[in-house]
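User: I'm new to structure prediction. If I give you an amino acid sequence, what do you actually give back? Let's try with this one:
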Amino acid sequence: MAQLDPLGQPALPPYPSAPSGDERSQYQPYPQYQPHQPVTPDPGINGFAVASLVLGVIGGVLLSVIFGIVALVQMRTRPYRGKGLAIAGLVLSGVWVLGLATLIVVAIASGADRDPSGELTDGGSVSARQLRPGDCVNDLQDSDNVLSLPAVPCAQPHEGEVFAAFALSGPDWPGEGHVLEKADQGCQDRFESYAPTADFESFELFVLYPTQRAWIRGDHNVTCVAMDPAGKSTGSLRG
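Assistant: Good question. You get back a string of structure tokens that encode the predicted 3D arrangement of the chain. For your 239 residues, that looks like this:
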């Protein structure tokens, strides 16, 4: 039977008391919502870093260094990937520079020495374009492929002696046959003035003449070498 209050109305149930410690432990709190964090898109690999690496591999030193520096600067402000590529490009560029410097040092060290008058005083490699009348040389090969020759003072054993050097005229490539004909004739015409007492017929003529590619670059130079068919000799044709 329901209980009534003093006014005859049904009595309300009592307020629940606060839960005890053990009871509170049975309640689960509402989950806490975290604010939404925007996702930053991945900018990818830096293009300058890739270019720096590629150019560093193929020897484009200057552009490789520029692109590598640009890539590293950009990576300070944006989260690009590829820092290792840029650094690798810079390192490879340094290797190229070091290698080139080494080749230059070796070329200088292995080059022939001349006195103030231009006479060879010590043997060494000489560019075909820098050979002079009076230079004696060895290892004569096909004149189409000669870039340099080992030159020695004529007092040392040698295969041939440079007796003339001149340039052919004409702006346009006249053809290999015409170039060789003019070069050969020019050498024969100059032999007597170089060695008046020598018999031209007793020597073989070795001619360095320009190829079409060299001619287009502006190289019209001809170098004339007299070779002793008996083999190496000592002394100069000029006596």
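You can read the tokens as a compact description of the fold. Here is one thing that stands out. The mean pLDDT is 82.
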